[in-house]
Amino acid sequence: MDEILIKGGKRLCGEVRISGAKNSALPILASTILGSGECVITNVPRVVDVLTMGKLLGILGAKVSHEANRAVIQTGMIECTEAPYDLVKTMRASVLVLGPLLARWGEAKVSLPGGCAIGSRPVNLHLAGLAKLGADISIDHGYITAKATRLRGGRIYCDTPTVTGTENLMMAASLAEGTTVLENAAKEPEILDLADFLIKRGARIHGAGTDVITVEGVRELHGGDHEVIPDRIEAGTYLAAAAITRGDVTVTHCRPGHLEAVLMKMREAGAEIQEEKDTVRLTMPNGLRGTDVRTLPFPGFPTDMQAQMAALMSLAEGTSVVTETVFESRFMHVEELRRMGAHIRVEGNRLVVTGCKKLTGAPVMASDLRASAGLIVAGLAAEGATQVQRVYHLDRGYERIEEKLGALGASIQRQPAGAVH
Ligand code: EPZ
User: Fold this and answer.
1) What is the residue-averaged pLDDT of the chain?
2) d(CA 254, CA 231)
3) Which of 39, 90, 125, 181 has the greatest number of C-beta atoms within 10 Å?
4) What single DSSP character describes residue 133?
């Protein structure tokens, strides 16, 4: 297990290129199951979760070649419709093959993903929606089994906007007989990106990106090419790193329009931000000011930026309240930030962060992808050395993070766990 060693206190300056969005690449790769033509996907981030999805498609029988940031997938020869526990337990997003397998092959057996560090993460809305499309769903021995000769269109209302639930149901509905209406759908940009790819391949989808999505089913989708949208959470993470080190950083190849809530909060915290077509430049002329943050489904402030914001507010003037409304326990970073000197009180689903003058470096433990990102952000500004352990969590969603931060002037290196520093 590697760890990342950061010597804090360096101002980050320069440009950083944002990679493709992990949470868009994952459903897009899964959607290749829906047709037999070749799909060429570019701007694919080279992160562990995407490699895991490629492995899963391979287990199902697809031909997957993935070099640099380009993936070529052929799924005509899929003969297996089972996603095994050993793989699903490493990546919950494996559940995204459920809808496509069921829609294309009439059956699917996918291990229940189980919980994770940020909550119980049920998939009941995925299953209820597929049942509404005529699937027979059963759960035994930890596996979901879904069967349907051919799915038929229906009206689905999701009790809560679910990102992968909306993606699974939109993919399943693409091959159902008749029309499906998905109400209270999630509106994240990654859903719109998936819909764009499906439409290129012959799907008939309207309203993706709004809370009502209509899908007219077709028999099969053909292949297609697609460039994955930039990763808005990676962009937000580098902007938080720039803000906490009072640097001057331009993130390039990004979509400012996907970051509105984050940019607004950064401005409230004292950042000066210039937005261009596909770049955002952040400078921090004065000190950080405390501000309140409440995570919400898109277009609200993203829950995947909550830990990074908590780290930022730890050094801001005044008191900030960070409220997590999407997941029930997404505060694994708090104990570790406290070890670095942060003054954070947990009150239910709220953090009360009292800004302090400085953070001090310490050995800290990563627990999940975005909590780890929050610890990296804190370590960049802390006095002394911070050793972030179990960085495999980070590698799931950040491409070459130490290289990109190093190029901005951070003193950061990856080393085997326990190396003397
Ligand atoms: C997606 O997870 C993202 N993952 C998460 O990013 C992100 O944090 C989350 O959306 C929220 O934006 C991918 O896209 C691969 P949800 P997802 O279903 O789809 C409840 C990262 O760091 N719910 O939108 O699993 C659920 O418990 C990851 O990149 C049900 O109750 O999240 C949660 O409270 C972490 N039943 C809320 O909905 C269901 O069937 C939103 O979850 C499904 C969800």
Assistant:
1) 96
2) 7
3) 39
4) T
**Residues 232 and 254 sit within 8 Å (Cβ to Cβ):** yes
Q: What gap in Å lies between CA 243 and CA 291, rounded to an integer?
A: 14
The pLDDT of 231-256, averaged and rounded, is 98
Strands 143-147 and 293-294, sheet pairing: unpaired
26: Cβ below 6 Å to ligand 1?
Answer: yes
What b/e readout covers 117-126, taking b as 16+ CB neighbours within 10 angstroms?
Answer: bbeebebebb
Angle, CA 274 vertex, CA 299 and CA 262 arms, to 5°? 25
Structure tokens at 156: 């689905």
Q: Which of 224, 285, 230 is nearest to 259 (CA)?
A: 230
Whole-angstrom CA distances from 89 to 102, 110, 112, 128 are 20, 11, 8, 22
56, 208, 289, 394, 408 from 45: Cα distances, Å: 17, 23, 33, 13, 20
CA distances from 273 to 124, 195, 242, 318 (A): 41, 31, 11, 22
- Beta-strand pair 2-7/13-17: unpaired
For ligand 1, the distance from its centroid to the CA atom of residue 91, given in whole angstroms, is 13
As given in the structure block, the two tokens for residue 35 are 């047709």
Closest CA to 100 of 170, 53, 47: 170
Backbone φ, ψ for residue 397 (5° rounding): -135, 0
Q: Is 254 a catalytic residue?
A: no
* 258-295 pLDDT per residue, tens: 999 999 999 999 999 999 999 999 999 999 999 999 99
Ligand 1 pocket check for 23: Cβ under 6 Å: yes
What distance in Å separates the CA atoms of residue 346 and residue 137, rounded to the nearest whole number? 39
Residue type (1 letter), 338: R
Q: Which two tokens stand for residue 418?
A: 């326990």
Catalytic residue among 116, 158, 254, 356: 116
Over its C-alpha atoms, the chain yields an Rg (Å, rounded) of 21
How far, in Å, is the centroid of ligand 1 from the Cα of 92? 10
